[in-house]
Amino acid sequence: MLKIKNLRKKFIKYNAKKKPEEFYADNGISFSVKDGEILGVLGPNGAGKTTLLRMIAGILEPTEGEIDFDKLTYQKNEIEIKKNIAYLSGNTKIYNTLSTYELLKMCAEIYEVPKDKQEKRIEEIVDILNMKSFLYNKIGNLSTGQTQRVNIARCLIHDPKYYILDEVTSGLDIISSQIILDFIKNEKKRGKIILYSTHYMEEAENICDNVVMINKGIVIKEGTPEQIRKDTKTTNLRDAFFALIGGVSNEE
Fold it and tell me: What DSSP character marks residue 195?
């Protein structure tokens, strides 16, 4: 189980008079995710989603709060935790001059996958993400959807337990998006813990067991999609979100 307790991240920004001001991108966020569960992290741009996921992935250090991976913490078990994490954002850059196969081979070495198991693992991933047709093509020549599948593939090479996925289907065509969503569903069946941030509320309703809605750095609602729709007397998560914040606002 992944447990997040009272997580906060403070930054400094400068106001119109160029004076520094403190603000919290995330302010007291708590939730938990069970094995074999997909948790949707939903909210508008600037809500604090990416900051939250980067803290959980060990990229940013929280100002306050606790992150517990099956009773392991970054303070005592950082290397062990990171060996079991796959973190991916929609704008992750990869080596354009390498082929898909060369990148996967390199990642297998980095994650210390046993040499006698590397080829089999690469074959499994290529089959899962339907990448045979461009396995030996240079990444720089691939489409956006193909490149994102390669990005996911490099995260799979070490068979992680925890997936932290930030807007991974953003801007993709319907076929590539569906391949990625099917993959996520299959990893859930294997008992993996998946955090899934998306702008697409319909996607979240389709694949998420539970949802955490964030606005202005705080959790405004948590529960199953069905529970949230029922509590807000709406028929979809998009309308539920607007009901919770009191409608559309022009405030940034």
Answer: E
